[in-house]
Specification:
Layout lengths: L1 H5 L8 H13 L5 E3 L3 E6 L10 E7 L26 H17 L7 E6 L7 H7 L6 E9 L8 E2 L3 E4 L1 E10 L3 E2 L9 H12 L2 H5 L6 E10 L5 E2 L2 E10 L2 H21 L3 E6 L6 E3 L1 H13 L4 E2 L12 H4 L4 E6 L1
Parallel strand pairs: 3-4, 3-5, 5-16, 6-15
Antiparallel strand pairs: 1-2, 2-4, 6-16, 7-14, 8-12, 8-13, 9-11, 10-12
Helix pairs in contact: 5-7
Length: 330
C-alpha cells in the first residue's frame, strides 16, 4: 500500500499502477488480462481448476486525485499535485492481499474474478470495464471503500442504499448585456442566475419527501466581464444527489423547470443540461447477509449505516447488471 501511495496516478493515467498490479499477479502464477488500457482482470480457478462458468467478482479501484500531499509521511506522494487522498491505494492493496489469501487457501467453490478498475474518481471507469467484458459470467460482485469517519476495524454492513446517485447540472443563462449606468436597457444575467440559485434552495425542502435524503448544490457560478458592465450571460454548475430513482427523476425535471421558469419570468432564458451520472449503490439482501456472516467469521462486528451517505461511487454501475454488496471499512 505504501508503494502505491508514493506513486499515485490520475484517472485513465494509471499505467505504472496497473503495471505494478500486473507484476504482483504474475508473480503469484496467474495470468491477468488487460482491459481499457489501464485496467485489468484476473480469474482465480475453482476447486476443479477451472475459471469457466459463473463466478464471483471482487473490485478494487486504482486512481488518485489531483491534490498536493502535505502529510510529511515517509511514504508521502512523490508525484507533485497528485495524491491517494481517497484510499484507492488501500483498495488496490486489499485486492492484491485477498488474491494472495485466496490462492494460498482452499480453492473456492466458484471461480473468483478480481477487477482492478481505473477512473473511479471520474465515475467513468466501471462503465468502460463493463463494456469491455469485466462482468462476463459474473453472478455477484463485491467492493468496498475505506472511510475515516468510522473507527479502525469497523465494518459497515448495510442492506439497501449505501451511496447516492449523482448527476452534474449545467445551467447556461442568457440575458442582455449593457452599461451598468443603464440597467433598464439590459437583462442582468447575474440577477437571473442568483434568482435561480435562490429558487433551487427550496426544491428539496418543499418538493422531496422528507424521508428521502437528497441534496441540490450549485458549486460554481461564473458571470460578467467587467465591474461596470451588466452581464449578458452566466453559467451555473452543480450536483444533484439522492438515494432512489423516483427522487432522482423528480429533481432532474424540477431543476430544469425552475431554471427555465425563473429566467423567463425575469426576461431572459436558460438552457439546462445534465451529464451522465451514476445511480445509487443498492446492496442486495442476499449478498448483504453473506457479507455479514463473513465479517462475523473473522471476529468483526458488522454495523448498519448510521446516516444516509450522499457520496457517490461508480461501483453502482456493476450493480445495474448483477447483484452484489459494497462495504465501508473504518
Amino acid at each position: 500500500r505504501r508503494h502505491l501511495h508514493e506513486h499515485p496516478e490520475l484517472s485513465w493515467q494509471e499505467h505504472q499502477t496497473a503495471a505494478y498490479v500486473r507484476r504482483q499477479i504474475i508473480a503469484l502464477g496467474l495470468s491477468p488480462r488487460d482491459l481499457c488500457t489501464t485496467g485489468l482482470i484476473c480469474d482465480v480457478p475453482d476447486a476443479s481448476g477451472s475459471t469457466a462458468g459463473p463466478k464471483i467478482a471482487i473490485r478494487a479501484d486504482l486512481d488518485a486525485l489531483p491534490i498536493q500531499e502535505a502529510t510529511a509521511l515517509p511514504f508521502a506522494s512523490q508525484s507533485p499535485g497528485i495524491m491517494h487522498a481517497c484510499g484507492h491505494d488501500g483498495h488496490t492493496a486489499m485486492g492484491l492481499g485477498a488474491l494472495r489469501l485466496l490462492i494460498a487457501g482452499e480453492a473456492p467453490p466458484l471461480p473468483v474474478r478480481f477487477i482492478f478498475q481505473p477512473a473511479e474518481e471520474l465515475a467513468t471507469g466501471s462503465a468502460a470495464m463493463i463494456k469491455a467484458g469485466a462482468l462476463e459470467d459474473v453472478v455477484a460482485v463485491f467492493g468496498g471503500h475505506l472511510d475515516n469517519r468510522y473507527p479502525c476495524g469497523t465494518f459497515i454492513v448495510h442492506e439497501g442504499c449505501v451511496n447516492a446517485s449523482t448527476d452534474t447540472v449545467r445551467i447556461e443563462v442568457q440575458g442582455k448585456a449593457g452599461h451598468a449606468a443603464r440597467p433598464h436597457q439590459c437583462v442582468d444575467a447575474v440577477v437571473l442566475a442568483s434568482s435561480i440559485v435562490m429558487q433551487l434552495q427550496t426544491l428539496v425542502a418543499r418538493t422531496v419527501d422528507p424521508g428521502r435524503p437528497a441534496v441540490v448544490t450549485i458549486g460554481r457560478l461564473q458571470a460578467g466581464t467587467a465591474y461596470n458592465v451588466v452581464a449578458g450571460n452566466a453559467v451555473l454548475e452543480g450536483t444533484i444527489r439522492c438515494t432512489d430513482a423516483d427522487t432522482r427523476a423528480l429533481l432532474l425535471d424540477r431543476v430544469a423547470a425552475i431554471a427555465t421558469g425563473t429566467a423567463t419570468t425575469l426576461g431572459g432564458s436558460a438552457r439546462t443540461t445534465f451529464s451522465d451520472g451514476v445511480p445509487p449503490v443498492i446492496n442486495s439482501p442476499r449478498w448483504t447477509a453473506v457479507a455479514r456472516e463473513a465479517v462475523l467469521a473473522v471476529g468483526g462486528q458488522p454495523q448498519p449505516l448510521p446516516t444516509a451517505n450522499l457520496g457517490a461511487e461508480d461501483f453502482a454501475n456493476y450493480l445495474q447488471h448483477v447483484p452484489g454488496f459494497f462495504v465501508r471499512y473504518g
